[in-house]
Specification:
Layout (H helix, E strand, L loop, with lengths): L2 E2 L21 E2 L2 E9 L8 H4 L6 E7 L3 H7 L21 E10 L7 E7 L2 E2 L1 E6 L2 E6 L6 E4 L9 E9 L1 H4 L40 E2 L3 E7 L2 E13 L4 E11 L9 E8 L2 E9 L4 E8 L16 E8 L5 E9 L4 E5 L12 E5 L2 E3 L1 E6 L9 H14 L4 E4 L8 H10 L2 E5 L11 H18 L5 E5 L4 H9 L10 H14 L5 E2 L7 H5 L9 E4 L9 H4 L5 E5 L7 H7 L9 E2 L4 E2 L1 H5 L14 H13 L6 H25 L6 E4 L22 H9 L3 E5 L6 E8 L5 E9 L5 E9 L4 E8 L5 E9 L2 E9 L6 H11 L6
Parallel strand pairs: 1-9, 24-25, 24-33, 25-26, 26-27, 27-28, 29-30, 30-33
Antiparallel strand pairs: 2-13, 3-4, 3-5, 5-11, 6-10, 6-13, 7-12, 8-9, 8-11, 14-15, 15-18, 16-17, 16-19, 19-20, 21-22, 22-23, 31-32, 34-35, 35-38, 36-37, 36-39, 39-40
Helix pairs in contact: 4-5, 6-8, 13-14, 14-15
């Protein structure tokens, strides 16, 4: 007989999973048993039904994990990272999976409860403990917690089972509305709260996984415990170095403990307590107001120190015993997004600028895509991938909406390194359902994510989605669909932000087609913030050079990985030749890595053709030799990305940021990333690192017959130095002299005469006593590949392969 009992805590109340934990809490990670079988017409949802499935296979599983990794370890599949092996996983999309774990009951004192916490369940699951149904899960992105105190066996062994259904099959339960998915998100994904990229994207494979992908643990908590804290900077005075800070505290507390319990609130920095107070608890929710003196403010990278404070709220009984404790680090700062609803074309006016502590910030950064197609590996990959952003001197990262939400560790690193986070909600390139049931799912998800992450000072923007507004135009433009009628991004999400995180900006979509933009025709020039992909032609085409966007949050160019990576991601015979010489078509594995979701579509082309076309434009032809093809492709990408960043920085302050695509691949592919899945850097990484220095000197393309020699300063201090510009081939000096540039400003040092022919200029500087070198490629394509690398090598700036 099945036993169903009503258990569990609302997901939205566990925003900080470290609240109320004891040293002897029990992790349930490690080895589990995994059973799997094709999902029957009536899915298996209970252990009783599972016992009758004679066709189930059983293997050992690792948690956190994904089922594919367990299949791989058991020798049942080939590595999906290599060649076209990923297509063999298609049949498993129709399977069910059951994770089983036995564990001992932890010791529990009077007045304590035990909570079972899943950091991430992918995705549609029923959870059973000792034959009792304790809850259901239907969202990959959020934590799930259940009070299991009354189900645990006293002093005995417990059996935990998580039965997961097929997300692909279960999607058929939902009636879909009009489709608007372009070439990206699959229609079957729209109602399932699972990472959109898993169904296939142009940067990720189709790999519809399942698993317990984040930690599982038993947490012992006192009946009186902290549910949530929210730290907010109410106001600041930079000159006086003062700030007012609010801390809102929400408790779960028995009535008899009210008036007999106190909360100790403290802030400290560098081990020194700067504020401490005790508050008698008379209600389950209260606010503390803190007036701080001699404040160390949190600043984005380059603009100052990202100062952090240790924040603590401890709930104590009458004897001073700590019942529950909430610890985090906070930054004292304000953030504002200064933007207009559209570009005023008649007056050439529009704004999209992040303002931190009253200071306009020029955003230099990257898009953050999945670290891995199998997200249980994310945590192990994070630190190395994050260091790439630090090395490239990014001060902003955009967490793309086709991904999962990163955990606290990612945001901790952003806090520490002064990297501002633009966080999309996990939706992209789709016309999502507008009905009540879907709205409730998104509201629950948004509430859980916002309350979990809102104390991180690096988080400066919530964005409703990636490209949902523009997706309506890809396939529904003739129907004149107004994105401002979208219930999810215009009603549900802003309501959650308004209630749960009112001090942080919200952008409905990226790019955002406001009512004014829509009413005036929805063309690109009206967008203050935009994604610039377009025809992917020459990187100096009018599409890029005449773009009106004040802030570009996606822009990129293709570049092959290094040969060592190609040899890892392809089977031996597929590395070279990449083309079938008889018919001139890409070989199959190069098409798999293009990326195509299924083996029979598209047959040819894809992003590989974009890459070869771009090589032809800059160098006249595509080299037949693989190593030269790699050199040419990486040079094109590097020059394009350098040009984009220098153009946007050179137009400061009219332009206020560029977030390029992207720092690292999440799967071994042929892509726009500047570092591949194996953390091997392409030439573009080195170019970007050089042109993202806080103070940078470069040459912009000629205007009215003159090349501006520009210095930009993304710091809050005046700067200056000495610069010499020479032609590398001739050795002729074109300019030398001193320069100054104001804090957070730009100066045109000189205007150089327009250059004839082709060549490369070397820019040598001493900036505030430190050396800096840059280059400028001049002339019209096509260039000679060997000559290009010969000149580039003479600059001694970059690591040239």
């Amino acid at each position: 007989m099945k036993k169903y009992v009503k258990l569990g805590l609302a997901v939205m109340l566990i925003g900080m999973s470290s609240l109320g934990l004891r040293a002897d809490d029990t992790p349930l990670n490690g080895t589990w048993e995994l059973s799997f079988f094709p999902q029957p017409k009536r899915p298996i949802t209970s252990p009783e039904e599972l016992a009758g499935v004679v066709a189930a296979q059983r293997i050992a599983a690792t948690v956190p994990g994904n089922v594919e990794l367990d299949l791989l370890k058991a020798g049942l599949i080939a590595d999906p990272m290599i060649g076209s092996n990923v297509y063999a996983l298609r049949k498993y999309e129709g399977y069910q999976w059951c994770y089983t774990k036995t564990f001992s009951t932890p010791g529990v004192k009077p007045g304590e409860r035990v909570r079972l916490v899943f950091g991430g369940i992918d995705c549609l699951a029923e959870i059973w403990l000792n034959g009792t149904h304790i809850g259901s899960a239907s969202n990959m992105f959020i934590e799930h917690a259940y009070d299991v105190t009354d189900v645990l066996k006293a002093g005995g062994e417990n059996t935990l089972q998580v039965i997961i259904r097929s997300a692909v099959i279960e999607a058929q339960q939902y009636m879909l509305g009009t489709f608007s998915v372009g070439n990206f998100a699959a229609t079957e994904s729209t109602y399932i709260r699972k990472a959109p990229h898993a169904y296939g994207w142009d940067i990720m494979p189709r790999l519809v996984s399942a698993g317990l992908w984040r930690d599982v643990s038993l947490e012992v908590i006192n009946e009186a415990h902290i549910v949530n804290t929210q730290w907010m900077t109410s106001s600041i005075d930079l000159e006086a170095k003062t700030a007012r800070v609010f801390v809102d505290v929400q408790l779960a507390i028995p009535f008899e403990k009210l008036d007999r319990t106190q909360a100790r609130i403290s802030l400290s920095r560098g081990g020194k307590v700067v504020h401490e107070e005790k508050v008698r608890v008379t209600s389950h929710a209260f606010r503390g107001i803190i007036e701080l003196q001699d404040v160390a403010f949190w600043w984005p990278r380059g603009y100052g120190d990202p100062a952090l404070y240790d924040a603590n709220v401890a709930l104590e009984d009458e004897e001073g015993n700590v019942l529950s404790e909430a610890e985090c680090r906070v930054g004292i700062r304000t953030v504002h997004l200064d933007r207009t609803e559209h570009n005023d074309m008649e007056n050439d006016y529009g704004r999209f600028c992040f303002v931190v502590n009253g200071e306009p910030v020029f955003a230099r950064g990257t898009n953050w895509v999945p670290l891995d197609a199998l997200h249980s590996r994310d945590a192990a990959l994070l630190d190395d991938a994050f260091q790439l952003m630090v090395e490239a001197n990014c001060n902003m990262v955009r967490c793309w909406g086709g991904n999962v939400y990163e955990d606290h560790r990612f945001f901790d690193l952003c806090d520490e390194n002064g990297i501002m986070v633009w966080q999309d909600f996990a939706m992209g390139c789709t016309f999502y359902p507008q009905r009540d049931d879907f709205a409730r799912m998104i509201e629950e998800e948004a509430t859980a994510v916002v309350t979990k992450l809102r104390n991180h000072p690096s988080l400066v923007l919530w964005a409703g989605n990636n490209e949902d507004d523009v997706a309506l135009r890809w396939t529904l433009i003739n129907f004149n669909i107004d994105p401002n009628r979208d219930r999810v991004s215009r009603e549900v999400l802003p309501r959650v932000i308004y209630e749960m995180d009112p001090t942080r900006p919200f952008l409905p979509s990226s790019p955002y087609y406001s009512q004014q933009v829509y009413d005036e025709g929805s063309h690109d020039d009206l967008l203050p913030e935009n994604h610039l992909w377009g025809p992917r032609g020459y990187y100096k085409d009018a599409y890029y050079t005449q773009a009106k966007a004040r802030f570009v949050s996606e822009i990129g160019y293709h570049g092959l990985p290094n040969r060592s990576t190609l040899e890892k991601m392809f089977t031996k015979d597929a590395v070279n030749p990449w083309l079938d010489g008889k018919v001139g078509l890409w070989n199959d594995e190069w098409m798999t890595k293009a990326v195509r979701p299924f083996p029979d579509e598209p047959k040819q082309g894809g992003r590989n053709d974009l890459m070869t076309n771009q090589v032809k434009i800059l160098f006249g032809s595509v080299p037949a030799d693989l190593d030269n093809f790699i050199r040419a492709s990486q040079a094109v990408q590097a020059e394009a990305m350098k040009f984009f960043v220098e153009k946007w920085r050179g137009d400061k302050p009219e332009r206020s940021g560029i977030i390029w695509w992207n720092i690292r691949d999440g799967w071994p592919i042929l892509s726009d990333a500047v570092t591949d899945y194996y953390n091997s850097k392409k030439l573009a990484f080195h170019f970007l690192k050089n042109v993202q220095e806080n103070v940078c000197v470069f040459i912009n393309d000629a205007k009215a017959g003159k090349h501006p020699l520009v210095v930009v300063n993304d710091t809050r201090k005046d700067s200056g130095g000495y610069v010499t510009v020479t032609d590398i081939a001739s050795g002729k000096t074109l300019y030398q002299g001193d320069f100054t540039v104001p804090a957070n400003g730009k100066s045109v040092i000189s205007e150089l005469p327009a250059l004839q022919g082709q060549g490369m200029l070397l820019i040598r500087c001493e900036i505030d006593g430190k050396p800096y070198t840059n280059h400028y490629l001049y002339g019209e394509p096509p260039f000679n590949l060997d000559t290009y690398y010969e000149l580039l090598g003479k600059t001694n700036i970059y690591a040239i392969n």
